[in-house]
Specification:
Elements: H1 2-8, H2 11-24, H3 33-40, H4 44-56, E1 60-63, E2 67-70, H5 72-96, H6 100-110, H7 116-125, E3 152-153, E4 162-168, H8 173-182, E5 189-195, E6 202-206, E7 209-213, H9 215-218, E8 221-225
Antiparallel strand pairs: 1-2, 3-8, 4-5, 4-8, 5-6, 6-7
The chain binds zinc ion (ZN).
The site of zinc ion (ZN) has 5 residues, from α5 and α6.
């Protein structure tokens, strides 16, 4: 039955389910359709239309003025799409040598085009990785999400401490290209030297080189304390 549902889902529907999953991560409340519209850069009307369609397929529950919640079936498809995305990014970086900024757009396309058979082979070839090269957990075939170590955003980290980069938000290609240019990778060491109170920009030291990051750039990096 699930296989039937998966084949019926078009690209935009999978993206829609994936976005609801991401927006529901830290709340039990329904996700508002206007929030989804904002994230996916589509109109509120298009979002409500899609909510009705997916509700008819039993992939989510939709209450006008309240928002949407994924059903178990919808959650399974969202997790499967995330799994394909993250496995592709891992594969492209590890085997083809693509960099942080290059893989996301490719994975956005491939995640909708790959059979379960090929995905399982790629997973096996990569030796069943738990995290992708951006530090995001890769759901297992059974839909279990590996637990990420407790991270703190660099914007909230303590001045004078040294951290390890554990995760990077990679939706902005320009920022990712900038990190690559600076030689920043996952698990790079980063010392937080100072933070400017007037705009929250930070002074950091990476590989003994000093950089200044705006608050927007710093907000992409998630770190753990080196000495824990
Ligand atoms: Zn990505």
């Amino acid at each position: 039955m699930l296989k039937f549902i998966v084949t019926m889902i078009t690209i935009s529907k999978e993206d829609y389910l994936k976005e609801i999953y991401a927006l529901s991560l830290f709340t039990d409340e329904p996700v508002s359709t206007s929030k989804i519209a904002e994230k996916l850069n589509i109109t509120n009307a298009a979002t409500s239309d899609m909510a009705k369609k997916l509700s008819a397929l039993d992939l989510l529950s939709y209450e006008k003025y309240k928002g949407v919640k994924l059903t178990e079936k919808g959650r399974t498809i969202a997790l499967n799409t995330i799994r394909r995305h993250r496995l592709w990014e891992t594969f492209l970086i590890k085997t083809l040598g693509l960099n942080w900024g290059e893989v996301h757009d490719e994975a956005e396309v491939l995640e909708h085009q790959t059979s379960e058979f090929l995905m399982d082979r790629i997973d096996q070839f990569l030796n069943f990785p738990e995290f992708d090269p951006h530090g995001d957990p890769i759901p297992t075939k059974e839909g279990l999400m590996p637990v990420l170590p407790e991270v703190v955003c660099l914007t909230e980290a303590e001045i004078g401490k040294t951290y390890i980069i554990q995760k990077v938000d990679h939706d902005n290609k320009e920022v990712m290209d900038y990190f690559t240019k600076l030689g920043i990778e996952l698990y790079s060491e980063i010392a937080l030297e100072d933070r400017m109170k007037f705009d929250n920009s930070v002074f950091v030291s990476i590989n003994n080189i000093r950089h200044t990051f705006s608050q927007q750039v710093a907000s992409k990096l998630f770190v753990v304390n080196k000495n824990i």
